[in-house]
Amino acid sequence: MRTRLHTGRLTLVALTTSVLLASGCSVLGGDDEGADAGARSVTLVTHESFAIPEGLVEAFEEDSGYQLKVSKLEDAGALTNELVLTKDAPVGDVVFGVDNTFATRALEEGVFASYAPTLPEGAAAYELEGDDEDGLTPVDTGNVCVNVDDAWFEAKGVPAPASLDDLTKPAYRDLFVVPGASTSSPGLAFLLATIARYGDEWPSYWTRLMDNGAKVVKGWSDAYFTDFTFSGGDRPIVVSYDSSPAFTPDEAGERSTTSALLDGCFQQVEYAGVLAGEDTDTAGARAVIDWLISPEVQAALPESMYVFPVDAGVDLPADWSRFAERPERTERIAPAEITEKRKAWLEQWTEIVSR
Description:
- The chain is built from 12 helices and 11 strands.
- It is of the alpha/beta class and about 350 residues long.
- Strands 1, 2, 3, 4, 5, 6, 7, 8, 9, 10 and 11 form an 11-stranded mixed beta sheet that branches.
- Strand 2 (about 40-45), helix 2 (about 55-65) and strand 3 (about 65-75) form a beta-alpha-beta unit.
- Helix 7 packs parallel to helix 12.
- It is globular.
- The model is unreliable at about 1-35 (pLDDT under 50).
């Protein structure tokens, strides 16, 4: 999850660049006045949701001798497109935030230089299939799942949906909102989950979904913070993350008011990689990757970026242990197949939701 929810009905803690600026990092295009002109700098290219506690950024800069500069793009899709378009003249030294739905495209374009750091416990399970040249290092993971507002359903006396199939039933007409697959990383992940689940019948499933009043919006924030009933909207079913219920406890903190539907989730993994280029500061880029998989940063990820660390030795926050239930199995599609068929799938999906 990219934005924090907390007790009360809704408290939003926006993830902005202010944390980075406060720590002495600069966001490219911003004001670098006051930076140490003599310090070496390393540029991290990432998505808009990147946020690490300023104390950890300061520790990195002190330990490595590098000033961390951060260049942010909108999401994983925009990030990957920019990396491919600028591969002959990279816009930074290192990247974080390319996920498994887009990673193979960047690998095929030769965007990354090889680097194989020592991985923390359990992280090898998240290495990208087909990345034989060690271009990418897993940093965090999470599952895109349908979420339901249990408090809303309890108040209405209506059973909450329990499966993807339920979402097409008349009882849930006009209750579901989903971010677009062509404009949102979680939206694409949900589309992939339905393709994995229904195979060649996925267009039929989406037709039934749309006929049952599903609403498609541009992004996850639109779906969760505008249309979802937890946030004051009128749709009690939304595509979000398995970690989302950890941020929606009731006022007593005894239980979450929402839950993730653990049927039909799609696993996302975010990666970091050294950008291949003549001007790349390879040592600085590798230092950033080592920092991102360090125990300190891994432990900070749940409450900073609302994702699960890949380090199995990290203790999760108490609310995560109580409320962020993870699916026993997820829907999966091989990264190479996603790369091969993504364009055709999105064209077909767009035609269905535009009817």
